[in-house]
Design a protein that fits this description.
Number of strands: 7
CATH topology: Hypothetical upf0131 protein ytfp
Structural class: alpha+beta
Number of helices: 4
Order of helices and strands: EEEHEEHEEHH
Shape: globular
CATH superfamily: Gamma-glutamyl cyclotransferase-like
CATH architecture: Roll
Largest sheet: 5 strands, mixed
Strand order of the largest sheet: 2-3-1-5-4
């Protein structure tokens, strides 16, 4: 009987702070060649079909890196965890095989990303338009504001600088302070 190789799941959005699946180990991790962007619509978690929220996806960027959290899945649980994540990430996300940097090592892993051809993809937009959309979006998983601020706080705890996330979070905080 062949031993199942370890499966690492890389999270760069809500999976950083909200891993709702069993794992054996978690560690800060990086993938090269990608950046995180608020270009994916969310009508199933942080918005609704009439007013989708904005959540992050990965965008290919050869000279950049994206930091997040990696989770090692126990042997024998990979199928169950992937089935759960396939459902959780059903709103336009596909699996992506990647190399995950953890400490001094590199490991094969999986993450989820939204392709521009999925029906929820919103793409690039003006910063103020994105903030306005985020301010008003609410879905079954909560407000879009909470998602953005939780991501910003999780990255801060990891000591990760992500200017895209920081700019949006800063604008949101400013708007909230004015309310």
């Amino acid at each position: 009987m062949q031993k199942e190789p370890p499966l690492w799941i890389f999270g760069y959005g809500s999976l950083i702070w909200r891993a709702d699946f069993p794992f054996v180990e978690r560690a800060p991790a990086v993938i090269n060649g990608y950046v995180r962007r608020f270009w994916q619509g969310s009508s199933d978690h942080r918005g609704n079909p009439e007013y989708p929220g904005r959540v992050v996806t990965l965008l290919a960027a050869p000279d950049h890196s994206c930091w997040g959290m990696a989770y090692r899945i126990a042997p024998g649980l990979s199928e169950e965890v992937l089935e759960h994540l396939d459902y959780r990430e059903k709103g336009g996300y596909d699996r992506l095989e990647i190399e995950v940097g953890i400490g001094d090592g590199k490991y094969p892993g999986l993450t989820y990303f939204a392709t521009p051809d999925n029906p929820e993809y919103l793409g690039k937009s003006d910063l103020n338009e994105m903030v306005e959309q985020i301010m008003n979006a609410v879905g079954p998983s909560g407000t879009n504001i909470d998602y953005v601020l939780s991501l910003d706080e999780a990255l801060t705890r990891l000591r990760v600088s992500d200017p895209h996330v920081s700019k949006i979070a800063s604008k949101l905080r400013s708007r909230l302070d004015q309310s």
